[in-house]
Design brief:
Blueprint: H1 3-21, E1 30-35, E2 41-45, H2 56-59, H3 64-67, H4 72-79, E3 84-92, E4 95-105, E5 113-119, H5 121-143, E6 147-152, E7 155-159, H6 161-167, H7 171-174, H8 186-201, E8 206-213, E9 219-228, E10 238-244, H9 246-268, E11 272-277, E12 280-284, H10 286-291, H11 309-312, H12 318-332, E13 338-345, E14 351-363, E15 366-376, H13 378-440, H14 447-475, E16 483-487, H15 488-502, E17 509-512, E18 517-521, H16 522-539, E19 547-552, E20 560-565, H17 597-607, E21 612-617, E22 621-627
Length: 632
C-alpha cells in the first residue's frame, strides 16, 4: 500500500472512530488503538496516553513495538485470532506506569487488531505498597526478640523465627502442631487452656506465667500473653506473645530467697532493729518488742499525739525524747550515722542502758525513714562501773607497790654497794696472800699444797668475775639510754677486732652483713655484741674451721638480728635457761664463764622493746636472735 493510501486509511479510521465513540475515551484513564498486520498503529484515542507522556499524533503511524517492545509476542497471537490479555509497563520521566491491555482481531477488518488498555498504575502501586508493608511486617515479626504464634482451633497456623528457636522446632514442623505439645503435662495444659478460653472467647486478653516445654523435652519458664486476632470474631483464632523469662524467674526466686534469709536473720538477731518516720514505728523485728518487755507478736501501740510519741519509742519522758531527737537530727541530716548511749524505759517502767545507732535512708531526694539498731548494754555499763572501782583500788595498790619497789631498789643498791666495796676487800686479801704463798713459799710446799694454793687463787679470780658480772647486770637497768641510729655492722666489727688482737693466733672466719642499723643506745648495744660475739668466739675454740656470722633477720616487721656460730652448740631442751643469770650449760673445765653475759643481753634488749631467743644443736653450733623495736 502506498503512503497516500495508508494516510487515507488512517484518516478514514479516525473519522469512523470519532463518530463511533465520540469524546468518551478522552476522559477515561484508558486508550483505544488499532494495529494493522504490519504492526503500524492506525488509530489511537484516550486520556490514558497522558500517563505515558504521549499524544495521539505521536502514536498514530508508528510501529507499536517501538513504543511497547514487550507487546510483539502478544500481537502475533492476536493476529492469529487468539485474544490476549496482558500488562504493559514502563517509565516516563522516572515515573512508573502500568496498563492492562486486551488484544483481539477486529471483526470489521480481517487484517487489523484492536486493543484496549486500561490504566492500572494506581492499583499496582497499591499492590506494591501492600507487598512492601507485608514484607516489612514479616521482617519485624521474624526479627522480634519475642515469640509470636497464631493459633486457630488449638493448632499452630503461623509462627515467627524467635518462636521457632524458643521451642526448638522448624517452621514447617510447627505448622499444625497442637497446643498441648508445648506444655510439660496434660494437667498443666488443661489448667492453662481452661483459664484462657473464656477470656479469649469474650475478646479479652489472657496472661500466664508458667512452665513450657521445648521439642527436646526441656522445660523453661515463660510469660504468655494471648488475645483474639479479631475481638469481634474470636473464631478467627488467637495471637500469642511468648517470652522466655527463665533468667528473670531465677533472679526473682534468688531475690525472694535472699529476702527470706534476711527476714530470718532480722527476726532472729539479738539486736533490736526498727524503722521510724514522723515519730512512728514503720517496721520492727521481734527483738525490738522483747527489748522493751512487750509481746513480740503484738502490734506496737502508737499515738497520733506528738506529746505521747516518746512512750511508744521507749523514752522515759518527753524531755529526754526531745533532746535525743535534736541530737539525732543534727547528725542524720548530714548523712552520717548517729551513735549514742542512753537510758531507755521498758513497758513496766524499768530503766535500762541502751546503745543506739541510727542511719537515714534516702530514696531519691527524700527520706524514707530512719533505721535504728538498739542493744541492751546494761550489763556492760555495770561491768564498766565495776572496772572503774577496781581501777581506783588498783591505783591505790600501784602506789603502795611502787613505794615497796622503791624501797626494794634502795635495798638492792645498798647490797650492790656492799658487794662492790665490802666483799672485794677480803677477796683481794685472799687473792694476794694466795699469790704470795705460791711465789714465796712454793719451795716449802709439796705438790699437793701448791695445788691447793693455786685453786684458792683461781677461786678468788672466779669470785671477782662473778661480782663484776653481777654489778654489770644490775647497772643495765639503771643506766639512762641515749637513743640514736647505730651502725651495728661497724659495732660488731670493733668487737671482732678486739677479740683478734687478744688472740692473734686464732684463725676464725667472720662474716658481717654490711649496712646493719638500729635505733638504740650505742653503749648498751656494744655490750650485746660483746657478749654474743664473745660467746661465739669462745665456743668455737675447739672447732675445726670455726665460722661466725652476724646478719639481719626481720621478725613480724620488726628489725631482727642474729649471731651464728658452728661451735659447741647446746640442747634445745635447755634453751629457756640460757638467759637466766648464773645459768651455764658447760662446766668451767670445758669453757670459762660466769653465766651473766646472756642475762645481760636479754635485759638490754628488753630495754629496747625487743626479745631474745636461741636455737642450737650439740656440736653443730648455735644461733642467737634478738629484735630491736624502732618505737621506744
Amino acid at each position: 500500500m502506498s503512503t497516500e493510501a495508508l494516510d487515507r486509511e488512517i484518516g478514514q479510521t479516525e473519522t469512523n472512530t470519532t463518530q463511533r465513540y465520540g469524546g468518551v475515551l478522552e476522559h477515561m484513564p484508558a486508550f483505544f488503538y488499532r494495529v494493522n498486520d504490519r504492526g503500524i498503529i492506525t488509530e489511537c484515542h484516550g486520556h490514558g496516553l497522558v500517563r505515558m507522556g504521549l499524544s495521539q499524533d505521536e502514536v498514530v503511524g508508528r510501529d507499536i513495538t517501538g513504543i511497547f517492545p514487550e507487546i510483539a509476542a502478544d500481537l502475533r497471537l492476536a493476529l492469529e485470532g487468539q485474544p490476549v490479555s496482558a500488562e504493559l509497563s514502563g517509565k516516563t520521566e522516572g515515573r512508573q506506569w502500568w496498563f492492562h491491555n486486551n488484544l483481539s482481531r477486529d471483526g470489521s477488518k480481517d487484517s487489523d487488531v484492536s486493543g484496549f488498555a486500561i490504566d492500572i498504575t494506581a492499583q499496582r502501586q497499591a499492590e506494591e505498597s501492600l507487598k512492601r508493608v507485608s514484607a516489612e511486617q514479616e521482617m519485624v515479626l521474624d526479627n522480634a526478640e519475642i515469640g509470636i504464634v497464631f493459633l486457630k482451633d488449638g493448632v499452630v497456623v503461623r509462627s515467627n523465627t524467635h518462636y521457632q528457636k524458643l521451642f526448638g522446632w522448624e517452621e514447617e514442623e510447627l505448622f499444625g502442631q497442637n497446643t498441648i505439645s508445648f506444655f510439660p503435662s496434660q494437667a498443666e495444659f488443661e489448667e492453662a487452656w481452661g483459664d484462657a478460653v473464656p477470656l479469649l472467647t469474650a475478646g479479652k486478653a489472657y496472661q500466664r506465667e508458667g512452665n513450657m516445654k521445648r521439642r527436646d523435652g526441656s522445660v523453661f519458664w515463660c510469660r504468655n500473653l494471648g488475645r483474639a486476632a479479631d475481638p469481634a470474631n474470636p473464631e478467627m483464632g488467637q495471637i500469642w506473645l511468648v517470652e522466655d523469662i527463665s533468667e528473670r524467674k531465677k533472679a526473682k526466686d534468688e531475690l525472694e530467697q535472699v529476702i527470706a534469709e534476711q527476714e530470718l536473720i532480722l527476726e532472729n538477731t539479738e539486736v533490736a532493729i526498727f524503722m521510724s518516720k514522723d515519730r512512728k514505728v514503720l517496721r520492727s523485728n521481734r527483738h525490738y518488742q522483747m527489748l522493751f518487755g512487750r509481746d513480740p507478736e503484738a502490734e506496737i501501740v502508737q499515738s497520733d499525739d506528738p506529746s505521747q510519741a516518746y512512750k511508744a519509742l521507749g523514752f522515759p519522758d518527753q524531755e529526754s525524747y526531745q533532746q535525743f531527737g535534736q541530737e539525732a537530727y543534727e547528725v542524720l541530716s548530714t548523712g552520717e550515722t548517729y551513735k549514742t548511749e542512753r537510758q531507755m524505759m521498758k513497758e513496766d517502767g524499768e530503766l535500762f542502758w541502751c546503745r543506739v545507732l541510727g542511719k537515714n535512708v534516702i530514696q531519691g531526694d527524700t527520706s524514707a525513714g530512719v533505721i535504728w539498731m538498739l542493744e541492751d548494754i546494761t550489763e556492760r555499763k555495770r561491768a564498766e562501773q565495776e572496772i572503774l572501782e577496781l581501777n581506783e583500788q588498783l591505783e591505790d595498790r600501784v602506789t603502795w607497790r611502787t613505794a615497796e619497789l622503791e624501797t626494794a631498789n634502795r635495798e638492792l643498791e645498798a647490797f650492790t654497794y656492799s658487794v662492790s666495796h665490802d666483799l672485794r676487800a677480803p677477796l683481794r686479801g685472799i687473792a694476794g696472800f694466795s699469790q704470795i704463798i705460791l711465789e714465796d713459799y712454793s719451795d716449802v710446799l709439796d705438790e699437793q699444797g701448791q695445788h691447793y694454793a693455786q685453786r684458792i687463787w683461781k677461786g678468788t679470780q672466779t669470785m671477782g668475775q662473778l661480782i663484776d658480772g653481777f654489778l654489770k647486770l644490775s647497772r643495765t637497768n639503771k643506766e639512762d639510754m641515749s637513743l640514736e641510729e647505730v651502725d651495728l655492722s661497724e659495732l660488731a666489727q670493733s668487737v671482732v677486732d678486739d677479740l683478734k688482737s687478744n688472740e692473734p693466733d686464732r684463725d676464725v672466719t667472720i662474716n658481717i652483713e654490711p649496712g646493719l642499723t638500729a635505733l638504740g643506745d650505742s653503749g648498751l648495744l656494744h655490750a650485746v655484741f660483746d657478749n654474743l660475739i664473745g660467746n661465739a668466739w669462745k665456743f668455737t675454740g675447739k672447732t675445726e674451721n670455726p665460722t661466725i656470722e652476724i646478719g639481719a633477720s626481720d621478725e613480724d616487721d620488726v628489725p631482727g638480728f642474729f649471731v651464728r656460730d658452728n661451735g659447741a652448740g647446746f640442747e634445745m631442751g635447755y634453751a629457756e635457761k640460757l638467759f637466766d643469770p648464773f645459768q651455764r650449760l658447760h662446766g668451767p673445765h670445758e669453757f670459762e664463764g660466769t653465766g651473766i653475759g646472756l642475762a645481760t643481753v636479754q635485759r638490754i634488749i628488753h630495754r629496747h622493746n625487743g626479745k631474745t631467743w636461741a636455737e642450737g644443736e650439740v656440736d653443730k653450733g648455735a644461733t642467737f636472735y634478738f629484735t630491736i623495736s624502732r618505737k621506744h
